[in-house]
Amino acid sequence: MDLVAEGFRKALQLLLALDPEVLGITLLSLEVSLAATALSVVVGISAGTFIALARFPGKQLVVSLVNTGMGLPPVVVGLMVTMFLWRSGPLGSLGLLYTPAAIVLAQVVIATPIVMGITIGAMQSLPAALRLQILALGATRTQLVWMLLREARLPLLAAVMAGFGGVISEVGASIMVGGNIRGSTRVLTTATVMETGRGNFDVAIALSAILLLVTLGVNYLLTLIQQRERPR
Q1: How much is the pLDDT for 153?
Q2: Do residues 81 and 102 touch, judged by C-beta distance below 8 A?
Q3: What are the pLDDT digits (tens) for 71-112?
C-alpha cells in the first residue's frame, strides 16, 4: 500500500510541477491515439456500414474475419507493420519506422476492426422494415445510409470509445514500431513498461495514473455526447 500511495503522490507531484518530459509523453500519447481513433472511425464506420447493408457472396466470411480482427494481438500487428516499414520492406522507402506516424499506423490496424465490427452489429440490429419505410418516403441511397447511421448513433459512439480504449492502452505494437525513443516516440504505456523494468515503481504508477486520467477524461467527454444523444 505504501508503494501505491507513493506512486499516486508522485503522479500528483509530476502533474502539479508540469514536468516537461511527462507532459511531452502525455501529449504524444493523446496525439497518436486520437489520430489513430479518428482514422479508424472513418474507415471502420464506412466499411462496416457497407458490409452490413450490402449483399455479396462470402459476406459471412468477411464478417467472421472482421470479428476475428477485433481480437488481433498487438504484438502481431507490431510485427507485421514493422516488416512493412523495415528498410527492405514494401514501405521502407517512406522512412516511417520508429516515428509517431508508425505508431499511428499500427494503432489504426488495431482499432479499425473493433470499430468495424461494432458498426456491423449496430447496423444489422436495426429493423429491416426501417429501410423500406425510408425508401418509401422517397429517400435516395445516400439519404438512406445517413438516416440509418443516425438511428444507430448510440452504438456507433460506443464503437468510437472502444476504438480509443484499444489504442490508448496498447503497448506491444507501439514499442515495436516506435522504439520507445525518448523525446520522439515514447508514450505513456511504453514509458510505464520501461520504468517498471528499471524498478522505478513509483514513476510507473505515476505514469499509469496519468494514463487512467487521460482515458477517463476522453471517455467522459464521449459519454456526455452519447447520453445527450440518447432518445428521451
Answers
A1: 84
A2: yes
A3: 888 899 999 999 999 988 888 888 899 999 999 999 999 999
Q: Which domain holds residue 96?
A: 2-228
Report pLDDT for 44.
94
* CB 168, CB 29: distance < 8 Å: yes
Q: DSSP readout, 118-181?
A: HHHHHHHTS-HHHHHHHHHTT--HHHHHHHHHHHTHHHHHHHHHHHHHHHHT--HHHHHHHTT-
CATH code for the domain in which residue 44 is found? 1.10.3720.10
Residue 232 is predicted with a pLDDT of 53
Number of domains in the chain: 1
Handedness of CA 83, 86, 88, 90 (dihedral sign): positive
As given in the structure block, the three cell numbers for residue 230 are 440518447
Low-confidence ranges of the chain (pLDDT < 50): none
Under DSSP, the state recorded for 222 is H
